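Lab channel / #folding
Pinned by the channel admin:
"Please post every new chain as: sequence first, then the C-alpha cells as a reply. Keep commentary short and put observations after the output so the thread stays searchable."

First post following the new format, from NK:
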Amino acid sequence: MYKEKMKDNCSMSIAGLDPSGGAGILADCKTFHAHNIYANCVVTCITAQNPFGVINIQELDLKVIEDEINQILDVYPIKYFKTGMLYSKDIVKLVSKKINEYNLKAIVDPVMISESGSNLTSNDFPKHLKKYILKKSFLITPNIHEAEQLSNKKINDEEDMKEVAELLSYDNNVVITGGHLNGNDILYSNDEIHFIKGNLFESNNTHGTGCTHSSAITSNLINGETLYDSCKKSNEFLQNAIRYGYNYTPNQFYEKK
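Reply from TO:
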C-alpha cells in the first residue's frame, strides 16, 4: 500500500478510557479536534466510570501499551504529546523510555484523583512520577490537589502556588491550575513566575477539565503558540467549554453551537 507523508499537525494522548466520554482519551481527542489537531491515542487503562464516580479499573498489558505507542510514533510525526492516567509504575517507566527513544516533548497531566474524588493510581504513584517522568517533561499541569501530592506541601493561596510551582520544576515548566482555588493559573518557566487570569462561575460541567486543559495546551503548542500564550488560551478555552458544557462535562466544540 502506498503511504502518503503524514501532516505534522498530529498529537498523541497516553491515558485511560472513560466510557462516559467526559474525561481521559475521549476528552483529549475532542480537544485536539477542536484545535484542528489530528488525534492519536494510546489507552493505558479501561475504567468503569461516569461523571459521579469510578467503580473499576483494568490496566492493559504493558506489551499492548508499548505496541500502541510504537505503531503511532513509527508513522505519525509527533513532537508534542500529552499524558493523562498512567496509573502504575510500569506504565510510567515505559512512557519515560519512549520519551527518550523518540525525542518527544511531554505535557504531563499528573492524573491521580478524578473530579468525583476517586483514586486513579496504584501505590506510591507520585514517587514514581517524580522519579521517571517529571524531570523529562516539557510541561506538567497539576491542579491544586495534585500539586500538593507531588510537593507534600499544602496550598492555601497564590503565594503557595508560586512556591510549589518552582519546587516542582526540574529543568521543566510547570503550570498549576487554580480551578480549585480562585480560577487563576500560575506558570513557572525559565525561572520566572507568570500569572494567568481566570474566572470561577457556578457549573456542574467539570468532569474532565484537567484532561481538556492539558490537551488544549498541547494543541496550542503544536499550532505554534508560545508556552505562555498556549497556557493563557487554554485557560480561556476551558472556561468557555465549561460555560457551554452539558451532561456534566465541558463542551470542546462550543464555538460550533
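NK: The radius of gyration is 17 Å.
TO: also worth noting, The helical segments are 24-34, 62-73, 89-102, 125-132, 144-151, 158-167, 209-222, 227-243.
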